[in-house]
Predict the structure.
Amino acid sequence: MAEIAEGGGGGHKGGKKRAKKQSTRIDMTPMVDLAFLLLTFFVLTATFSKPKSMELTFPAPPPPGPVDEVKNGITFLLTKDDRIFYYEGQFRAADDEKGKKTELSELNFSQESLHKYLLGKNKDMQDQIRALDVKHKNKQLADTTFKRMVKEVKADKASYTYLIKTDDKATYKNVIDIIDELNVNVVGKYVMVDILKPEMDLVTEKVGP
């Protein structure tokens, strides 16, 4: 609140009465109160940033006894320097009656490498989902029916299951990047599991200790 304080008396000079000088003092107390009220309002109404999370699918513990071969399985092995190694089917440490010893191939995070590879592997599934999407947009499928059929396509036993494994030199960024790429390519089944020692040995042969 502003106040006007009178100061300095006026004397007579030359026979004329001199006007009294006036000074202004601004009381800042209401302004401080208003600032605290605004601060309290914004603190109570502000939306704080929430930690972002990503949905991951983890495998169920295997049943006791021998483990069956993973059909249509593709395993990604992540290691240092943003390198991705992979193999298809079951891992074999040596040649046997079911197949040859596993050999690792390499991909990278470029559009012409990992993205193109996944696009080719999931083309049939994406074509089915695209056809369902066309019917859904043309009002030939209800929302619930469309979602159920898309889920069934993704869960088809014939579609690939992707296993993501990392050694102790891989980064969290690499894991997030490969999961993002899997989601972009509408991959229905992927899991994160521990890397096996024979797999680690093959990776070490490629990248060195």
Remarks:
- The chain is about 40% helix and 20% strand.
- The chain has a mean pLDDT of 80.
- The radius of gyration is 35 Å.
